[in-house]
Amino acid sequence: MNALVITGGVDWVVDLTDRLTEPGTYDLVVVDDEGSVPGDLPLGEMDMLFVASSDGRESLAESVQSMRAKAPLAFVVALTELGDLEAAAEIAQAGADDIVLKAGEGPELVLGTLPGFLERYRSIHRLRLWNDRFRSIVRSSADAILVLSREGQVRFINPAAADLLCRTAGEVVGTEFGFPLVVGETTEIDLLLPGDTAVVAEMRVVEVEWQGESCFLAALRDITLRRQTEARRNRLEAMLRQAQKVESLALFAGGIAHDFNNMLMGILGHADLALGELDPDDSARARIRQIESVALQAARLTKELVAYAGHPGQVLQNVDLTDIVRESEPVLRALVPDQCEIIMDIPASSLVLQCNPSQVRQALINMVANAAEAVPDRGHIRVGCHPIDLVGGEVTPVYPIAESISGRFACLRVTDDGAGMSEEEAARAFDPFYSTKTVGRGLGLATVLGTARSHRGAIAMDTEPGEGTTLKLMLPVAGPRAEEQARSEADDAVTEASGTILVADDDDPVREVVGEYLSQAGYDVVLAQDGQEAVELFEARGDEIALVILDIMMPRLDGREAFRIIREQSPSVPVIFSSGYDKRSSVSRFTGEDIQHFLQKPFRPSELLRLVRSVLDPGG
Prior knowledge:
By secondary structure, the protein is α/β, with parallel strands linked by helices. The protein has 17 helices and 23 strands. Helix content is 40%, strand content 24%. A six-stranded mixed sheet has the order 2-1-3-4-5-6, sandwiched between helices. Strands 8-7-11-10-9 form a five-stranded antiparallel sheet. Strands 13-15-16-18-17 form a five-stranded mixed sheet. α7 runs antiparallel to α8 and α9 packs parallel to α10. It is elongated and about 145 Å long.
């Protein structure tokens, strides 16, 4: 340890300081007065200062005060011959930690006793060092730190707190903090800063003693970015769960549609064949027509299932969305109760889409039907469409699930002033057969979601309880008008035909019906119950087979594998594929092959024969 002795011109001071300190424990620097202190002496690092003065208590008090300012951590001892308590009090107030009075033959301590002198020094010195380090840590802390009175008044803030609050220490100290203080727990508070900037802060409170006062120390950390990141992650996780649910339901719907289509193929096919065998006046014809009608309704349901799975299954056309809305108006008005008003908001300019018009029309009908269930008596439904330019992130759509959309879109909009939906109800609005009113009766908005998926568009929904619902189906507008593909309405009558056709399908009714269709048209037919048998029959009779019709999903060898083997034997033989799935999802199973001809089940005899004739006789 080291000490500085300022004798103040008093000759007994050095001897007195020797008696106050332990021999050999101090390096003493002795000077006559403050002006004699060496310039290179680091006063701020001194452990102890002895200050004496022969000019009375005012001079001694000034010297003590000066030394205290220069060495705030040192233990300052005033040495004096003044014996009155008033002088001692004034010197102590100037910053002296102890006062030594020379009286008689030996020194006497006014504050404390001589044996406890060094222990008093060590205690005060340690306390000052701790306080200094504490202040240094607090001031340099990255966390915002505030010292608050028991009543919540701000006593001190560090620079980080000033930065967080966007205010100076002078503006904050002395004001009320305004938030409840829970000692020992971590809480979150919302701060509103100048400029209406909102900040979320995490706060931890402990009890401390500050300048002799029992206070609270509150440490604040800005967690706004963390909360925003967590909120974004939670949204993305919810979107991912929704995407997985949609994809699972779509896969399920596609599988059901495939199996239904195979069954409907058998029902419709045998109904067609039965009608062809009955006399025109046979009473059974009416019943078979009824069977056929019901089967066709079921076929339309499977198309909705395919639409929900996200595949239109038809050629897209360039169509004006305003025409679709305008032409649908009579149907839409029929959906709405008489006491409810429907308002059509159709722009004069066209909005051309490359779309499946029947699918878009059905989506609009389902959107209005959903709104009609929600509106009260004398409610209103507004239907409209308009162009919209979207920048990535401008819309958070229901679909696509985990990405934003951008580009030029046509927005088909249906708004109602009904009851609206809660967050939980809105999350399920696009589930098949879900309804907030009654037990679900159909695919409803699920097909609207399928329309968005199949057209690479999006759905956005705004709804709150009691505030109604706005549903927006956004579809990309068409580029330069493409040449529309149209099917020729060829004569459905059966004409003379010849040639051998290999038909492979693992579904017995479908295989039999297709065989009957072709046989009645004049073709020779070879039937196979799976891909393996089709390959074996082609190996045996390949020279006479003019056309192969393959179901894609078959046991042992599926249509894709059978196709490759048959093509290796005869690269030129034409092949027609059929499936209960739509063409796009069916073709996706093939890589590298050119799939030119496809029939989606259920198909009618006229569709089959028209395609067979065009394949076997392209120029006919």
